[in-house]
């Protein structure tokens, strides 16, 4: 019986290993543009995940009992409210890992949520345009999900925001109505603003649709304490961990989302990126002719606190955005799982500046005030110990 089961498992593995990722030519341009292709591609990836899991004998992670992450608007009202309540709770929970003797060096860390922001600030140049960008953020948001559960009594999973559904006008998304079951509202509109030239990307950015404080719904009465470090037209802090209490602001801007976060963008990213280096560069805006990618487009499209390169986790919406980024990577991996599961490419410094060694799966990845360090290979499999989740 065991021999037969093993032969069946080996046959399944061989079938998956021989399978090829679908070609973009399988869909019309209209189907790519309207989201039909995205829906079908993600279903193919989920079918492959289920098939892959069936080859793992005695795996404690099972399809029917694993955590399922949903798009925020697909959650019940009660679950949405539970999530935002827990996220607010974390912003009022004392720091958990910063020692008392470290407090003087980190005056802006007043809460557990601040520990996430400070960690991102500290590691910014080692977790973007690096080999571990995707893996690091996967674990970062997973630990956030666990903290919501363990520290704030949340019984659900981390939702994600599919910005492609809202790319033409994110400020009008049902996620941001400002009612009790939303992710809060856009920031208060600030009129009579001019375009801003973004030197790194070489473009003129028109003003967004908000810019001020969130005034209704969840997160309208919270205080953020760290950053910003890099925002244009803003008084940035003088030191990385300076205490800078203020409201949470947003500035939704379709200039970015309708150019970089559409169904066309995300589907072409997945289906046209055969090689990891192309996938990573295109996602993050380091590919020729694409200065933002779906990652950068999402951050700048949210505007406000979420668009600061260093302190973007100040806005809880950061974690839904990166849930979508992880969903995209998970989909890409599972379209060709045996070639893509454990493949990495790059170094540990932003754009390899300063030059650093190529990373390996045996490297130790730091998580600062968020969590214990992890081995790189432990971040690559969503069915591995400590993860066991999928996207719906």
Automatic annotation (TrEMBL):
InterPro entries tied to this protein: Di-copper_centre_dom_sf, Tyrosinase/Hemocyanin, Tyrosinase_Cu-bd
Keywords: Metal-binding, Oxidoreductase, Signal
Regions annotated as coiled coil: none
Record-linked Gene3D superfamilies: Di-copper center containing domain from catechol oxidase
Residues of the signal peptide: 1-19
GO molecular function, one term: metal ion binding
Highest taxon, organism lineage: Eukaryota
Residue stretches making up the Tyrosinase copper-binding domain: 315-326
UniProt protein name: Tyrosinase copper-binding domain-containing protein
The species this protein was found in: Aureobasidium mustum
Organism taxonomic ancestry: Eukaryota, Fungi, Dikarya, Ascomycota, Pezizomycotina
């Amino acid at each position: 019986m065991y021999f037969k089961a093993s032969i069946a498992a080996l046959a399944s593995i061989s079938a998956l290993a021989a399978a090829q990722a679908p070609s973009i030519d399988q869909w019309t341009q209209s189907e790519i543009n309207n989201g039909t292709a995205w829906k079908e591609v993600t279903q193919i990836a989920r079918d492959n995940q289920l098939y892959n899991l069936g080859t793992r004998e005695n795996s404690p992670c099972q399809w029917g009992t694993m955590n399922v992450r949903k798009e925020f608007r697909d959650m019940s009202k009660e679950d949405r409210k539970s999530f935002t309540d827990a996220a607010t709770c974390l912003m009022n929970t004392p720091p958990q890992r910063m020692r008392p003797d470290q407090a003087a060096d980190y005056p802006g860390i007043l809460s557990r949520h601040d520990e996430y922001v400070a960690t991102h600030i500290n590691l910014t140049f080692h977790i973007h345009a690096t080999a571990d960008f995707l893996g690091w953020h996967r674990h970062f948001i997973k630990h956030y999900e666990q903290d919501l559960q363990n520290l704030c009594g949340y019984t659900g999973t981390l939702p994600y925001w599919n910005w492609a559904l809202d790319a033409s006008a994110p400020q009008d998304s049902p996620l941001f109505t400002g009612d009790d079951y939303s992710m809060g509202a856009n920031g208060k509109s600030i009129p009579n603003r001019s375009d801003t030239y973004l030197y790194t990307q070489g473009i003129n950015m028109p003003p967004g649709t908000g810019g001020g404080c969130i005034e209704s719904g969840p997160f309208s009465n919270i205080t953020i304490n760290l950053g910003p470090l890099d925002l244009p037209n803003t008084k940035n802090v003088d030191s990385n961990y300076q205490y800078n209490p203020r409201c949470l602001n947003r500035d939704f801007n379709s200039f970015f989302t309708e150019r970089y976060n559409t169904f066309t963008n995300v589907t072409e990213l997945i289906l046209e990126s055969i090689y990891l280096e192309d996938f990573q560069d295109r996602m993050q805006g380091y590919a020729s002719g694409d200065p933002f990618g779906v990652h950068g487009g999402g951050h700048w499209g949210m505007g406000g606190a979420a668009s600061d390169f260093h302190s973007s986790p100040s806005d809880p919406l950061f974690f839904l955005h990166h849930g979508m980024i992880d969903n995209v990577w998970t989909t890409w991996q599972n379209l060709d799982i045996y070639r893509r599961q454990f493949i990495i490419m790059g170094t540990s410094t932003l754009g390899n500046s300063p030059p650093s060694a190529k990373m390996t799966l045996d490297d130790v990845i730091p998580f600062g005030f968020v969590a214990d360090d992890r081995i790189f290979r432990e971040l690559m499999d969503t069915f591995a110990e400590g993860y066991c989740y999928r996207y719906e």
